C-alpha cells in the first residue's frame, strides 16, 4: 500500500554524520511554512518544483532560450516549470529541484546503506524543509522503515498540527527539534511565523516521547543575546529534555538564493566567534544540559 503514496523531496544525501547518531541517509522533504532569514536550503521552502540556474556553468549557447515558449529565460516570473530548458541545457547550468517519489522508492534508496547503519548505529533522517508538512507520506515512510528495523529520526521545526506530530512520534526513534528563540514577536519577525504552536508542540511531544534533541541555530544579532539563551535553557529543562546541539550560523547556502533568483537578507551577518559559541555552550551547561557543537 505504501508504493502508491507519493511525496515531494529535493535531495537524498548518503553517508551523513550530522543528522543524528552514526552514519545516516538524510531525505530532504520539499516545502516549509517558515521563512527563516538564515535558511541555508532555500530550495526547501516552496513545495513546488523549482529551477536552479548555475551561471558559472552556462556556455551561452542559447539552447534554453530556443526551447522556452514562455520567455522565462529573460523573465523568471513567466516560468511554467515545464523543464524544457533543463532538457536542452548541454552544460548542466539548469537543474530541476524537486521530484515526486513513492514511499517504496524512498525505502529502496535507504536500504542501500543498511550495512553502514548496522556498523555505526545509524539510520535514516527525514529532514527538509518541514517533513511534517507532508504528514501522511512521512508516516508511511517511517512505518516502512520500522518494519525493516531501520533507526529513524525526524528533523522538525514543530510548526504543524499537534495530533500529527504525536502520531509521527509513535513511529519515530529520535526527534531533532529546532528551537530558535523564545520571544514570539521576534520569532515571527525573523522566521515569518509565531513560535506559539512550536513551543506547545514541544511540550506535548516531550510528555509522550523520550528521545528529543534540541537544535539551536546560533545567529549573531538575532538570537544570541543572553536573555534568549537563558530563557531557552529554562524552557528546555522544564520539559525534562537533556540534550541540545548548538548550530553556529554559516552563509554557505547564500549562493543558492542567486540560483533561485532570490535575495539573501543576511549579507552582513558573520559566523559567531569561538568565544561566543563557548559562552553560549557554558550558559546551557549551567542548566545541566548536555551540549554539543554542530551535529
Question: In short, what is this structure?
Answer:
The protein is an alpha/beta fold and 295 residues long. The chain has helices at residues 63-67, 84-88, 103-111, 114-120, 135-147, 162-169, 184-191, 196-206, 226-237, 254-259, 274-286, and strands at residues 6-16, 24-29, 50-53, 94-97, 99-102, 123-127, 151-156, 174-178, 212-218, 243-248, 290-293. It has 2 domains: 2-47 and 99-293, Alpha-Beta Barrel (TIM Barrel); 50-96, Alpha-Beta Plaits (2-Layer Sandwich), CATH 3.30.70.20.
Note down, in words, how this protein is organized:
33% of the residues lie in helices and 21% in strands. The chain has eleven helices and eleven strands. Helix 3 crosses helix 5, helix 5 packs parallel to helix 6 and helix 6 packs parallel to helix 8. The longest helix has 13 residues. The model has no long low-confidence stretch (mean pLDDT 94).
List keywords for this structure.
295 residues, alpha/beta, TIM Barrel, Alpha-Beta Plaits, 2 domains, 9-stranded mixed β-sheet, 11 helices, 11 strands, globular
List the SSEs and their pairings.
Elements: E1 6-16, E2 24-29, E3 50-53, H1 63-67, H2 84-88, E4 94-97, E5 99-102, H3 103-111, H4 114-120, E6 123-127, H5 135-147, E7 151-156, H6 162-169, E8 174-178, H7 184-191, H8 196-206, E9 212-218, H9 226-237, E10 243-248, H10 254-259, H11 274-286, E11 290-293
Parallel strand pairs: 2-6, 6-7, 7-8, 8-9, 9-10, 10-11
Antiparallel strand pairs: 1-2, 1-5, 3-4
Helix pairs in contact: 3-5, 5-6, 6-8
Amino acid at each position: 500500500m505504501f508504493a502508491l503514496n507519493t511525496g515531494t523531496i529535493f535531495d537524498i544525501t548518503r553517508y551523513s554524520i550530522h543528522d543524528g547518531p552514526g552514519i545516516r541517509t538524510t531525505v530532504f522533504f520539499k516545502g516549509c511554512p517558515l521563512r527563516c532569514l538564515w535558511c541555508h536550503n532555500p530550495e526547501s521552502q516552496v513545495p513546488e518544483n523549482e529551477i536552479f540556474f548555475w551561471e558559472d556553468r552556462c556556455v551561452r549557447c542559447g539552447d534554453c532560450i530556443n526551447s522556452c515558449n514562455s520567455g522565462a529565460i529573460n523573465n523568471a516570473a513567466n516560468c511554467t516549470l515545464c523543464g524544457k530548458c533543463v532538457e536542452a541545457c548541454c552544460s548542466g547550468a539548469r537543474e530541476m529541484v524537486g521530484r515526486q517519489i513513492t514511499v517504496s522508492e524512498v525505502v529502496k534508496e535507504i536500504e542501500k546503506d543498511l550495512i553502514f547503519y548496522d556498523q555505526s548505529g545509524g539510520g535514516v533522517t527525514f529532514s527538509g524543509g518541514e517533513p511534517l508538512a507532508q504528514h501522511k507520506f512521512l508516516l508511511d515512510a517511517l512505518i516502512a522503515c520500522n518494519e525493516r528495523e531501520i533507526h529513524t529520526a525526524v528533523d522538525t521545526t514543530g510548526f504543524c498540527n499537534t495530533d500529527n506530530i504525536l502520531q509521527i512520534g509513535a513511529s519515530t526513534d529520535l526527534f531533532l527539534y529546532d528551537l530558535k528563540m523564545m520571544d514570539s514577536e521576534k520569532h515571527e519577525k525573523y522566521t515569518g511565523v509565531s513560535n506559539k504552536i512550536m513551543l506547545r508542540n514541544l511540550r506535548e511531544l516531550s510528555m509522550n516521547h523520550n528521545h528529543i534533541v534540541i537544535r539551536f541555530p546560533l545567529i549573531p544579532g538575532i538570537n544570541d543575546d543572553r536573555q534568549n539563551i537563558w530563557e531557552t535553557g529554562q524552557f528546555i529543562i522544564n520539559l525534562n529534555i537533556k540534550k541540545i546541539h548548538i548550530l553556529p550560523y554559516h552563509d554557505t547556502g547564500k549562493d543558492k538564493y542567486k540560483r533561485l533568483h532570490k535575495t539573501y537578507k543576511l549579507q552582513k551577518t558573520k559566523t559567531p566567534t569561538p568565544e561566543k559559541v563557548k559562552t553560549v555552550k557554558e550558559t546551557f551547561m549551567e542548566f545541566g544540559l548536555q551540549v554539543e557543537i554542530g551535529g
